[in-house]
Amino acid sequence: MPVTGHGWFTWPNSIWNRANPYPPECRSRSTSVTIDSAISTRGLSKHFGKLKAVNDIELEIPSGQIYGFLGPNGSGKTTLIRMLCGLLTPTAGDVQVLGLNIPEQAEALRSRIGYMTQKFALYDDLTVRENMRFMASIYGLPRREANQRIEHLLDRYNMGAMRDRRAAAMSGGQRQRLALAVATLHSPDLLFLDEPTSAVDPENRRDFWESLFDLVDEGKTILVSTHYMDEAERCHRLAILETGELRKSGKPDQLMRELEGLVVEIEGSDLRQIKNQALSLPQVRSAAQQGLRLRVLMRGGDSQDPAQLLRSALPPGDYEIKTARPSLEDVFVACTAGDE
Ligand SMILES: Nc1ncnc2c1ncn2[C@@H]1O[C@H](COP(=O)(O)OP(=O)(O)OP(=O)(O)O)[C@@H](O)[C@H]1O
């Protein structure tokens, strides 16, 4: 039967089998990794010609958690994930994943990770069960074990009734569930999810995240890339990326707390005009309207209370100024060039 999808493990074996595809200057210098780290990188870089797609990234990703890469299009999320999986050779740096040096030991890593791409990598002409059977054979699962896993996952992800449906005839949310089932068929310790919710509606996104927390509850580690703030906020920890650089990392609530006192909301009429006036002040980093309010991020470093400062700096008018709780979007704006 002809297939139209692109399976991850159908990529050339040469990717995996090269004895040591790493350039000598970036072979692993250290083999020590703390027991709680699923992933550890030092000076990790990938350059495509002059473009620094990923530049000098240091990461320590704990096991048993959901770790997020938050960044806009082109910030290097996919490139980073592909290097961590051993699918792309770094230009420089050290990578350890599950205690293995990558890419040298990528072959040994292969059976311990699952990878779900934003396009879901399904075979449209195969049914749900055929997709699963095919991937089980690629993972090398014995027939009996494969059948048990397939039945378990069909049940777990509510796909029993659609087992004979072709992937092409499934909705976005159903395809997403199938892609997650396929990526976890071989019970990997570590899951890489590259923008897994970009093609699904909010309800399916919510269910999908619940499934991720179930997997974490079973001891899995999950690395997920996203450009949605609300998704990033669900992660235990995250790294904010921009133009291949790591701008900030930490727990979402800790990152938001760091901005406490610097976010101000203005409610009133003529918000577009107030926005321009606010942006002309040197203490204002950014201003963006959200419904009936103008959200203003201040630069900090000033001893005066930001709300008070704005009240005295803006011309009098029919509006109210209040300090607001920082959001992850504020964190993102504060640590990227999004305000410029
Ligand atoms: N094989 C390649 N050759 C040349 N440039 C590349 C290659 N792969 C990625 N890039 C470039 O590297 C940069 C980072 O791309 P990457 O796909 O990693 O970003 P991303 O954050 O995953 O983006 P998106 O959210 O759009 O998927 C981009 O400028 C991209 O064009």
Question: Care to describe what's here?
Answer:
Pfam families: ABC_tran. This is ABC transporter ATP-binding protein. It comes from Halioglobus maricola. Keywords: ATP-binding, Nucleotide-binding. The protein is built from twelve helices and 14 strands. It has 340 residues and is α/β, with parallel strands linked by helices. The protein folds into two domains: 248 residues, P-loop containing nucleotide triphosphate hydrolases (Rossmann fold, 3-Layer(aba) Sandwich), CATH 3.40.50.300; 64 residues, Alpha-Beta Plaits (2-Layer Sandwich). It has a six-stranded mixed sheet, with helices on both faces. Strands 2-1-4-5 form a four-stranded antiparallel sheet. It has a four-stranded antiparallel sheet with strand order 12-13-11-14, with helices on both faces. A hairpin with a 2-residue loop joins β9 and β10. α4 crosses α5. The longest helix is centred in the middle third of the chain and has 16 residues. Bound molecules: adenosine-5'-triphosphate (ATP). Adenosine-5'-triphosphate binds next to β2 and α2.
Instruction: Give the biggest sheet.
Output: 6 strands, mixed
C-alpha geometry: elongated
Question: Beta-strand percentage?
Answer: 25-35%
Low-confidence stretches: 1-35
The CATH top-level class label of the largest domain:
Alpha Beta
Spatial sequence of strands, sheet with the most strands: 6-7-8-3-9-10
Bound molecules: adenosine-5'-triphosphate
CATH architecture of the largest domain: 3-Layer(aba) Sandwich
Report the structural category. alpha/beta
The figure for the number of domains is: 2
**How many H/I helical runs?**
12
Strand segment tally: 14
Query: Per CATH, what is the topology of the largest domain?
Result: Rossmann fold
Radius of gyration, in angstroms, nearest whole number: 23 Å
Pfam families: ABC_tran (PF00005)
Protein name: ABC transporter ATP-binding protein
Organism: Halioglobus maricola
Domain ABC transporter: 39-268
